[in-house]
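Why do we bother with holo predictions? Because pocket geometry can differ from the apo form. Keep that in mind while you read this record for 4'-deoxy-4'-aminopyridoxal-5'-phosphate.
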Amino acid sequence: MTHIPTYIFNHEIRALNISKIRQFDDHVSAFEPLIRLTLGQPDFPTPQHVKDAAKEAIDSDFSFYTSTAGDIKLREAASKFVEIKYNLKYDPQTEVIATVGATEALATSLFTILNPGDYVLIPSPFFSLYDSLVRMSQATPIYIDTSETDFLITSDTIDKAIQNLDKIPKAIILNYPNNPTGVTWTKDDVISLAQTLSTYPDMLVISDEIYSELVYDQIHVSLGEYLRSQTIVINGLSKSHAMTGWRLGLIFAPESLTTELLKTHQALVTSASSITQYAGIEALTHGINDALPMKQAYKKRRNTVTQALRELNLTFTEPKGAFYVFASLPKDLPMTSYDFCYEFAKHFKVAMIPGDAFGDAGEGYFRISYASSLKDIEIAMDRLAQYVTDLREQ
Ligand code: PMP
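The structure, written out:
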């Protein structure tokens, strides 16, 4: 094969690393069979009625491009869904866009607003896609370490981060419930953040609320309710309806924003898959509570994990949503997160993600995903107990 010189490639892309989650996964795959507590996706099947709707869409030749923003019935269903669930009011005609997963919603949002040299605030630890998309736009991510504030961004830390900069950031990306930490905000937190963020009217807020249907002991509050004019709310069906492979995401934003967002969305993908959109209409109308049984199962698993961690005296911030627990390495252990997880996978056949995969603020932690069967989780926690006991005795 002819050698392609490196200068051929876009330099931001060349500098991007493959996700550390993927790298870790590759490294430990030599130790199969493994119990994987690494997955960022539901282990449940898509609800049957949603699958049936997709079959109907195929059989009735619903096979053409939809309008750029998505089929109007889907936009109406989505608008109604977020109104019932989160008290949001977005006009389905002009303020809702169906995307190819939350991933494309994020890409569309960032590519629409960023110019080279712009700053974007990213609370850290973070979902690594944010960092990649900002860098692809030749903008600069500014990380705000949240490990001292229970992984919640606060008004104070936002103000401090901005004071140190020579210009106001173009955007801040928020993600509650959070991947990787499982923490989420309360209504009071949202109100206070909205107040602070409104003092920076030139800074947009990209609020990734993809885990909004998986909040355990409280009600999800959307930033769109309290800071509508500045916020792009991102959601989707991947987690709420166990539909990661279907690729359906949603953008909710004021028309002044969607007018520009639509140009990017159209250039990137034309429209989301028609079959998937048809299934989405079913999910968001007759399946508005499809997440409930899954949520109950996740909650039980979460309790199993947190109970096991408590018994081992491992510290973590109480996870209130999504399906992750972000725990500290045993104290005084001269080991990196990577080595801790690698050795565990090697000797105990359980894979968990080292915290540094989510930014420097994640070093010293590991992420457990409990989107796995309760039985596997129980076995994994027994093995973790044995591993930690061995390490402490060394
Ligand atoms: N945001 C967060 C925080 C996520 O964890 C994920 C998926 N792991 C996504 C966005 C992407 O979701 P989608 O499958 O809808 O593209």
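The chain has a mean pLDDT of 96.
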